[in-house]
């Protein structure tokens, strides 16, 4: 009897402990996720601090990254380095990630060579990835990808993508473009303007005074969750209701879509009526959401795959990305006459337009094909196919993985920059750059170039880090990256001076449509620096720079005036001024400081030559 009672007590204790562990895991997941959301970061830190004070190693480990990046707490790089260094020996995946980040960016104060630091960083990331840290899994996947090991890269990126896939909405919701600390780097400024808080408050005031168009715009801003305003679907739905009652069809469709995606609880049972009314008024975007309504059934409306298919096909004709995805879901439904192959065709299209759930489904299809080939007897005949599927799946898994909550660190970093917290902004951008966010390469580079962060004690260390992120930007097809690499090689900043390499980078930037790249390349061709001198090509590039950017009018005008002046002097005096090396190979600090006091060398040269020509012409007149 006592034995049975003892066993019963033990079982009860195990159940209680298991329940507590499960509850803590859920709470920890919420707290860690909150760290990546500005408005929730402080709460996440508070939860983790409470657990850490009770000796929880996972919470202590998570807090090391929060302190390193300045998430929800004041940044403490030295403290993060010390605590993560002690925690890696006793467990805690996130502590390994923190140590890896510190090593990758030369922030440990060690005397290791760059290669030794990188090797240790990879080892820490591997340990963290094995212990299910998705940040580390993305890093390791990227490491193997850049090293040409597709299969290993796929293993880790797939794990991170699988973690993210369950949290991503099926909705094809347009994302707010990342912000750049230099406006010149933002290629979206002409197509998308993020409203300021004052502008949004004016919209709200206009909406409250009866402006229904303002109500619609306010709803869109609240639903997108733009910076400074935040994400508030409940308030968005209220403004949409106001606009919908004024017969604005965009509001009708948007409100119905929010109902169907369970974004908000409907305030009345009129989802079908909203869509049918919008369609009756000629808004064909309603087709996609009528398709969604009939695809799964909603309220009193039963599931009807026939009607769903007709509406979704109409949505596809309108170019709806979500319609492609939903039609794929329809083909996947056992009650439909479709096939998995037809579903994949739809998802491949929507994935091309950045629809994350579609990307994950297509990647999983490639993964399954690869898995089947692993059990094929004649492997030589399938290895090429498997490699092809691997290379197709990799970018899709990466797209999914980068859609995790950590993407919101981009906005947190920009906010740090605006508030003058340059060190916190830089560390966030460096982490994001390591993960593969293109805008982070550029923003990290600008901060490192500025020298305002105080993170690195020497110019050389900052330039070494800047070289890495600018190279990543260039590899990602960003013209600013090619331009900065060109400048670094031209002036010998962090690399040996190499005008040939500089010319190549400027040329690559010019091919990307960069007016600055065209101008710099024209200047090098004009003077024969790093390339063969060709005055005709130089003139064409100057003119191309002007066509590419109206802002280039003054520098291009001066450059062409100088060129024409030099050619006139050469012709008049029989000289070859271009044969003289007027251009300094590298600007010294003295030259740079004089720039603020004296005009540029080429402007001064033009003035001198103009005076010479005027004197010659005047002298000639007196002689006559």
TrEMBL record:
A Pfam entry, by short name: Sel1
Protein origin, superkingdom: Eukaryota
Keywords: Membrane, Signal, Transmembrane, Transmembrane helix
Entry's transmembrane regions: 596-618
Alphabetized Gene3D superfamilies for the sequence: Tetratricopeptide repeat domain (1.25.40.10)
Signal peptide range: 1-18
InterPro entries: Sel1-like (IPR006597), Sel1_AlgK (IPR050767), TPR-like_helical_dom_sf (IPR011990)
Membership in a protein family: Belongs to the sel-1 family.
Name of the protein this chain belongs to: Uncharacterized protein
């Amino acid at each position: 009897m006592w034995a049975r009672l003892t066993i019963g007590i033990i079982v009860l204790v195990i159940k209680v402990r298991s329940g507590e562990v499960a509850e803590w895991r859920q709470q920890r997941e919420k707290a860690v996720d909150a760290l990546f959301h500005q408005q929730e970061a402080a709460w996440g830190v508070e939860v983790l601090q409470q657990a850490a004070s009770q000796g929880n190693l996972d919470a202590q480990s998570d807090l090391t990254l929060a302190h390193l990046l300045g998430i929800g707490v004041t940044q403490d790089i030295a403290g993060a380095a010390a605590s993560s260094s002690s925690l890696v020996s006793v467990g805690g995946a996130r502590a390994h990630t923190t140590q890896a980040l510190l090593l990758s960016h030369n922030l440990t104060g060690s005397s290791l060579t760059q290669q030794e630091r990188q090797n240790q960083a990879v080892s820490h990331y591997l340990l963290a990835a094995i212990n299910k840290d998705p940040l580390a899994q993305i890093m390791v996947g990227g490491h193997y990808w850049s090293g040409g090991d597709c299969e290993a890269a796929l293993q880790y990126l797939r794990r991170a993508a699988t973690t993210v896939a369950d949290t991503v909405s099926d909705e094809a919701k347009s994302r707010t473009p990342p912000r750049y600390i230099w406006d010149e780097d933002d290629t979206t400024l002409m197509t998308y303007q993020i409203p300021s808080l004052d502008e949004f408050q004016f919209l709200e005031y206009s909406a409250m005074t009866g402006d229904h168009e303002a109500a619609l715009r306010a709803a869109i801003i609240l639903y997108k969750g733009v910076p400074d305003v935040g994400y508030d679907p409940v308030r968005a739905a209220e403004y949409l209701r106001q606009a919908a009652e004024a017969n604005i069809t965009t509001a009708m469709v948007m409100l119905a879509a929010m109902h169907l995606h369970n974004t908000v609880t409907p305030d009345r049972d009129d989802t079908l009526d909203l869509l049918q009314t919008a369609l009756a008024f000629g808004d064909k975007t309603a087709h996609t959401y009528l398709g969604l309504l009939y695809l799964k059934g909603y309220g009193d409306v039963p599931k009807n795959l026939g009607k769903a298919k007709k509406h979704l096909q109409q949505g596809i004709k309108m170019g709806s990305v979500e319609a492609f995805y939903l039609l794929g879901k329809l083909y996947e439904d056992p009650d439909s006459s479709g096939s998995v192959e037809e579903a994949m065709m739809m998802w491949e299209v929507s994935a091309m337009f950045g629809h994350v759930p579609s990307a994950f489904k297509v990647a999983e299809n490639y993964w399954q094909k690869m898995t089947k080939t692993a059990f094929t007897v004649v492997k030589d005949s399938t290895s090429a196919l498997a490699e092809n599927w691997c290379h197709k799946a990799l970018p899709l898994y990466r797209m999914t993985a980068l859609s995790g909550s950590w993407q919101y660190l981009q906005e947190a970093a920009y906010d740090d920059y605006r508030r003058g917290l340059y060190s916190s902004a830089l560390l966030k951008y460096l982490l994001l750059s390591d993960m593969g966010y293109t805008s982070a390469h550029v923003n990290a580079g600008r901060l490192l170039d500025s020298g305002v962060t105080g993170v690195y004690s020497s110019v050389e260390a900052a330039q070494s880090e800047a070289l890495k992120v600018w190279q990543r930007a260039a590899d990602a097809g960003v013209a600013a990256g090619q331009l900065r690499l060109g400048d670094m090689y031209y002036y010998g900043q962090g690399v040996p001076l190499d005008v040939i390499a500089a010319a190549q980078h400027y040329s690559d930037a010019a091919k990307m449509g960069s007016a600055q790249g065209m101008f710099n390349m024209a200047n090098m061709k004009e003077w024969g620096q790093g390339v063969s001198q060709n005055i005709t090509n130089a003139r064409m590039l100057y003119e191309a720079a002007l066509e590419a950017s109206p802002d280039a009018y003054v520098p291009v005008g001066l450059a062409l005036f100088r060129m024409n002046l030099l050619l006139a002097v050469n012709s008049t005096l029989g000289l070859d001024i271009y044969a003289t090396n007027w251009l300094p190979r590298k600007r010294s600090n003295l030259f740079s400081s004089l720039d603020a006091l004296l005009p540029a060398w080429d402007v001064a040269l033009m003035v001198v030559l103009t005076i010479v020509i005027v004197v010659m012409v005047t002298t000639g007149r007196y002689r006559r």
